[in-house]
């Protein structure tokens, strides 16, 4: 799958994803005694972190090209 976004759209998506990641981390901290639920949240958070890193890399590359 390929998703084409301009820089502004990428920045907006990053903000949304980062907020969602913060929410997941809060939920993980509250789910101390619910191991299965906590594991599911942690997997989602790791996947989200991977997506955020990829977006950050593309934004950084765009900034280099713009300079």
Describe this structure as you would to a colleague.
This protein has two helices and no strands. The protein is mostly helical and 67 residues long. It has a domain at 33-67. The mean pLDDT is 89.
Structure summary, number of beta strands: 0
Q: What's the oligomerization state?
A: single chain
**Amino- and carboxy-terminal Cα gap:** 29 Å
User: Percent helix among the residues?
Assistant: over 70%
Count of helix runs: 2
Question: Nearest-angstrom radius of gyration?
Answer: 15 Å
Stretches where pLDDT is under 50 for at least 5 consecutive residues are: none
Which structural class do you get from the secondary structure elements? Answer: mainly alpha
Average pLDDT confidence is: 89
| Major sheet summary line | none
Beta percentage is under 5%
Order of SSEs: HH
Q: Estimate the global geometry from the Cα principal axes.
A: elongated
Q: What's the quick description here?
A:
The protein has 67 residues and is mainly α. The protein has helices spanning 7-30, 35-66.
What key phrases describe this protein's structure?
2 helices, elongated, 67 residues, mainly alpha
What's the arrangement of secondary structure elements?
Layout lengths: L6 H24 L4 H32 L1
Helix pairs in contact: 1-2
């Amino acid at each position: 799958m390929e998703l084409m976004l301009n820089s502004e759209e990428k920045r907006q998506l990053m903000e949304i994803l980062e907020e969602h990641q913060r929410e997941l981390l809060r939920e993980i901290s509250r789910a101390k005694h619910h191991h299965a639920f906590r594991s599911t949240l942690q997997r989602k958070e790791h996947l989200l972190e991977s997506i955020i890193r990829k977006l950050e890399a593309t934004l950084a590359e765009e900034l280099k090209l713009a300079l």
